[in-house]
Specification:
Helix content of chain B: 25-40%
Number of helices of chain B: 5
CATH architecture of chain B: 3-Layer(aba) Sandwich
Helix content of chain A: over 70%
Number of domains of chain B: 1
Order of helices and strands of chain A: HHHHHHEHEEHEEHEE
Largest interface: A-B, 18 and 17 residues
Number of helices of chain A: 9
Shape of chain B: globular
CATH class of chain B: Alpha Beta
Largest sheet of chain B: 5 strands, parallel
Strand order of the largest sheet of chain B: 3-2-4-5-6
Low-confidence stretches of chain A: 479-485
Number of strands of chain A: 7
Strand order of the largest sheet of chain A: 2-4-5-7-6
CATH topology of the largest domain in chain A: Four Helix Bundle (Hemerythrin (Met), subunit A)
Strand content of chain A: 5-15%
CATH architecture of the largest domain in chain A: Up-down Bundle
Mean pLDDT of chain A: 85
Oligomer: heterodimer
Radius of gyration of chain A: 63 Å
């Protein structure tokens, strides 16, 4: 459409240019012919003036009457030169002009001769020349020649003018056509613009609708996630409670068993030691060694299981504890946390530096205390005994988050464990320190509840950096606690 | 009228038979010789306490001390506690809640409804045994009112 419009406009421009050009040519030609006609007229009138002057003189012998003659004769040459300039070689005009030159010369000669005879006093001779009629014939010939020049010129002028008029009409048509076409193109452009705008608005409405439904889907999904999360917490809570009940039995009856065993052992001790009685020796060994060992293992296992259940319970309670955002000075909070580890750090010759001042935030104080307490505890627990410990706590504000780092020069964590250590009951490296693999899982749960994230960078043998990013202000969604724990 | 501690019966509502046995053993170790009436679910316990007609008249003249676990298969101990405290015949019986839950709000709720004592079952058996024996000593000194006719 636009291409067609452009081509059409170009055609109109070319055509207008061509029309203008040919009009100019016509105009030039018309003006030449007009000038030629004027010059021819002038020549005729000059010749007539010359003759009038001559006649007047001859009649009156008064030189006063020679004035028109003298003026005309003086101007004839210039007029002839102008005629020659304007004449067109092709149309035989030049030939006519040459003839006119000859005639004009002959006429002038005749006129001059009569005047000269008159001046010489030969009055009759002069009139005799006039009476021959030669001068009259010359004049007629000149008139005829001028008519020969003017008549075709007039015809040509007429043709040219007609052509010019035709051209003007064509120009008008072209201009009208161009105007019409421009109207069409503009109309088309307006129509296209309107259609595009309508399409655009429709698309925008569709996007808006999609957006709305997306928001709804997101909020539905969020609600589903919250429900699922609440479900998991409730599940963890129930499981940990129900796991505890049988554990009470295992421990209780283990103790009952131990009490019973003690009385059996006491009874066996009172029996005289029958040296050769293999069965009695076996029973003694069972009572004094095997069974206490078995009871010991049961005890250790149940104690451990109790700790694990308590950990799950603590996590599930943490997940449902109501957060209480308040302004927290991180500098003070971390200083207090560090102070509680000073004693242990001193024993281990470990330096703890706070690269303060740490940025403050609005968040849940208790959760933050637990996060930093756990991370500091870990940093101290997993120091490398081969070198003096150094722990640094840093904080900085990023565009929309605060980032805190706890860096140590401890034994480090292998790369494949960087994610695993945040899982419940998972630990990394040599298992030579006490622990259940709960601390970091707890930290991650807490930090996520504070709408943050915790990650670790670590090189084994060089140290670890735990990085916590938190929002500057904890904005609580209107969430319902999963369980009133 | 008040009953002599010796004539008081202990109603034990506990679904875990192991727990029930351990509780009984430790009560006996504390020198308590009272009759223990065990139930392993809420429905049968309610049938005993409120009688077949559910009015509670069945408990007329009884002097009971109730040991109540909160996690029962057919209902929660809180329901039983509420029913006991809402019934004119049973509302004066002391109720000892003995359960694994140490949930603060749950404990508060039980006291609000009218529990006499709330004891968390410690997983550590020694603490558990000690708690039960002390509970036995407690039984031997408290006065329990007889349900009025």
């Amino acid at each position: 459409m636009l291409l067609a419009a452009a081509v059409a406009l170009l055609a109109i421009i070319v055509m207008s240019g061509w029309l203008a050009d040919s009009t100019q040519q016509y105009s030039r030609s018309v003006s030449r012919i007009s000038a030629l006609r004027v010059a021819a007229g002038t020549l005729l009138s000059q010749l007539q003036d010359a003759e009038i002057g001559q006649r007047g003189y001859l009649l009156t012998e008064d030189r006063q009457y020679l004035k028109p003659y003298e003026t005309a004769v003086a101007a004839v040459d210039a007029t002839i030169a102008r005629l020659r300039d304007l004449a067109d070689e092709d149309d035989g005009e030049l030939r006519i002009v040459d003839r006119l030159v000859g005639l004009a010369a002959a006429k002038r000669e005749e006129l001059a001769e009569t005047i000269a005879l008159m001046e010489a006093g030969r009055h009759d001779d002069s009139l005799a020349i006039v009476r021959t009629g030669r001068g009259m014939r010359l004049m007629d010939d000149a008139r005829q020649a001028l008519a020969d020049l003017i008549t075709p010129a007039d015809a040509q002028l007429d043709t040219q003018l007609r052509a010019l008029t035709g051209q003007a009409r064509i120009s008008g048509w072209v201009a009208n056509l161009g105007g019409l076409f421009i109207l069409l193109v503009v109309g088309g452009a307006v129509w296209i613009a309107v259609r595009y705008t309508r399409d655009l608005m429709q698309a925008q409405r569709a996007i808006q609708a999609l957006n709305d439904s997306l928001e709804q889907r997101v909020s539905e999904r969020t609600m589903e996630l919250q429900r699922a999360n609440a479900e998991i917490q409730r599940f963890a809570y129930i499981v940990s409670h129900d796991l505890r009940a049988p554990l009470v039995n295992v421990m209780g009856f283990t103790s009952e068993f131990e009490v019973g065993l003690a009385s059996v052992a006491a009874h066996l001790d009172r029996q005289p030691a029958g040296a050769d009685d293999a069965k009695a020796a076996e029973a003694r060994r069972a009572v004094s060694e095997d069974m206490p060992e078995a009871i010991g293992f049961i005890r250790t296992s149940t104690t451990k299981m109790d700790r694990l259940i308590n950990a799950i319970l603590a996590l599930s309670r943490q997940g449902s504890r109501t957060l209480n955002p308040e302004p927290v000075s991180m500098q003070t909070l971390v200083e207090n946390a560090v102070a509680s580890f000073r004693h242990r750090a001193g024993e281990l010759r470990c330096a703890i530096d706070i690269a303060g001042p740490l940025p403050s935030l609005v968040s849940d104080r208790l959760a933050l205390e637990q996060v930093f307490g756990n991370l500091l505890d870990n940093a101290i627990k997993y120091l490398d005994p081969a070198r003096p410990g150094r722990i640094a706590i840093r904080g900085r504000a990023e565009p929309d988050r605060l980032v805190f780092e706890i860096a140590d020069n401890g034994r480090g964590i292998a790369a494949q464990d960087h994610e695993r250590i945040f899982e419940l009951f998972r630990r990394s490296g040599v298992q030579d320190r006490p622990g259940e693999g709960i601390g970091l899982a707890y930290v991650r749960t807490l930090v996520r509840r504070l709408q943050g994230e915790v990650t670790v960078d670590s090189v084994p043998g060089q140290g670890s950096v735990f990085r916590i990013s938190l929002p500057e202000t904890l904005a609580l969604p209107s969430e319902k606690p999963a369980h009133d724990a | 009228m008040m009953r002599d501690a010796q004539t008081v019966s202990i109603v034990m509502i506990e679904d875990d038979e192991g727990h029930a046995r351990l509780i009984e053993k430790n009560i006996r170790r504390a020198g308590v010789t009272n009759e223990i009436v065990p139930f392993t679910d809420g429905t049968s316990a309610l049938a005993y306490l409120f009688g077949p007609d559910g009015t509670g008249q069945a408990s007329t003249g009884r002097a009971l001390l109730i040991l109540l676990d909160l996690n029962l298969p057919d209902m929660t101990g809180v329901d039983i506690l509420s029913k006991l405290k809402a019934n004119p015949y049973t509302r004066r019986f002391p109720v000892v809640v003995l359960t694994t839950t140490d949930d603060r709000q749950e404990i508060q709720r039980c006291y609000d409804i009218g529990a006499s004592v709330y004891i968390t079952k410690p997983v550590n058996y020694e603490s558990f045994a000690t708690a039960i024996r002390q509970l036995g000593l407690f039984f031997s000194v408290i006065q329990i009112p007889e349900a009025e006719a």
